[in-house]
């Protein structure tokens, strides 16, 4: 049976929002652990977290100060922040509501349950002791959903669109983490030695659950150039940018009319593969410019997917060639 | 432990569907009543629980709006089926086909020559004041001249044992999915009773529906693209829309999934691009179907759909404008319409009715408000009615005023003594009032009538309101073949 554009778009966003909820939870989790290790004279603000999630503007509108409490609330439970964990879960649920017949019933029930649990947990407050539990539940719940989809949804177009959403979001989040976390970890000049840098690079790896994999594959002391190479270019790490975009490209091959989206993905893959990481590490500006380029590429990729497959708001005739499938 | 004791079942002065007298089941119900009497209380409770589990796991729900949020409620169901002997059903079926055939001829006439008005059978003012007459449909000739492809007629049995037609739903009648699911649940709960082979199957409906819809396709030479058009998840019948689409193996679409091109052809947006649609089983009211032709503020519909339909590039079931015959005042003329179009006497009687537009009737109605049920011409779902005997003085006075100011919009019927059927409460069968909604499909060939239909039951003791939105439930309906055994 033909797949409706609306259904494809909903499933794509379901997967994106689930991935967003999970990634945000991981990020908050690792940051809260890292803060416990930092000495008082070297305060690591929660501030960077706002920038990673791209929520600075929304935050300024809602809060006066970047206090720990405000930032945690904003990232986890604030329904006015479209990027918060609860908002992401709510949006995943709303997108699935109209398309739940397409996926196994357990997926709908799982999304529903995760959302309800997270809401009631958040209502009880997110103080230091509760935060761990909340984040753990979100991460577990999202992983369960990903596993359910992986293990029960037939290989076919619905699954492909979920995979596209998941990988676009994952690649986007990985680049955001690299961008914000590395910027202030890279030395401005060669003499400058920043304390606790080692610890912080570890936290970058951990926020992507990549620390153990790094140790296995790189086997070196954690250092900037290796970490960045690993996160950008490693072909095996599920959350490296290269791997995400590769999985996504493979999936696109199964869809009709994939040329435009595949071209956008291929361009990102080439940019990432050709990046000179040691040069990037020596210049925060160069790194930042490079990350921007990858993010623009991801945006272009999303636009290509949306333009090709999702319902167009344009009237008929304004859209590109009318492809009337006639049996 | 108490068992089901039919001796103590009292149906007072109503006709009961299963019991002829206390302790004496009707012939067609004997097998069932004996089986129920053979269960002990625990077993009966287990069967009832099994039905509840089945309904939950099968996910049979209907949607209610409450305090601004949407709730999926489990379908209220009673395990004791309602039984009709097959020979009675065959007569009923013939009567329903006759009725729908005449109604389709009537609708087609109204949108063409209006001979029925010119010949003085239907008063011109009835047509003039019909809110469901759509000028946009005048002159259109849908495939096979059929307008009401899917009709749901409500039947009730009076205390004389006769089945009467209470109303015909020709717009977007719902409930058929529950009829099918009720059978699935009952088969799980009372499997041993189906082994006899006397209970006629109901599951031919979906293939019949698909064939009828496919037969409307303007591109008859090609594999037709049939879709079900739903207003969306917030509609109370969304479950049914999804169910029928899934069972037929066709797309369930919303208005925004469809687009009408400059070529007046309807397309749906798929990941392959735009794909032509041939037949739309629409579950959206006329008013919301096409903002270009009807309500401009509709966001549920498809701009240009009427254009495409008038050009004949797409078929709509039911056709827009079919509701003109689904008006409670037009209803009172149906026996005459059958005589006029088919030159036959109606096989199924109407409930006796008073038309407030006739002065004599109006005076009678206003003087007997406490004995009558007053219905507005164009409401459905049991809304906007006055049940005279249960109403307050103030409510009756209010209705009297409304009738006075808009007589064409009201008709009245005597308070029917609706039949009852045994329904389980606290482990005992108790009489509850029921109606029956069979569905009639009309396409190119012979019409098809469901085997039985959806039996709706008023769960509250003494209540006559069977609508699921107002505390009604339902039960399986068995058409039982009598004979050799």
TrEMBL record, chain A:
Superkingdom to which the source organism belongs: Bacteria
- Pfam families attached here? Alpha-E
Q: Which residues form the DUF403 domain?
A: 3-310
| Protein name as it appears in the record | Uncharacterized conserved protein, Alpha-E superfamily
Automatic annotation (TrEMBL), chain B:
Domain Circularly permuted ATP-grasp type residues, every copy = 81-458
Pfam families reported for this sequence: CP_ATPgrasp_2
Kindly give the InterPro entries that the UniProt entry links to this protein. ATP-dep_Glu-Cys_Ligase-2, CP_ATPgrasp_2, UCP005522
Task: Give the highest taxon in the source lineage.
Answer: Bacteria
**Gene3D superfamilies, A to Z:** 3.30.1490.270, 3.40.50.11290
Report the protein name in the record.
Uncharacterized conserved protein, circularly permuted ATPgrasp superfamily
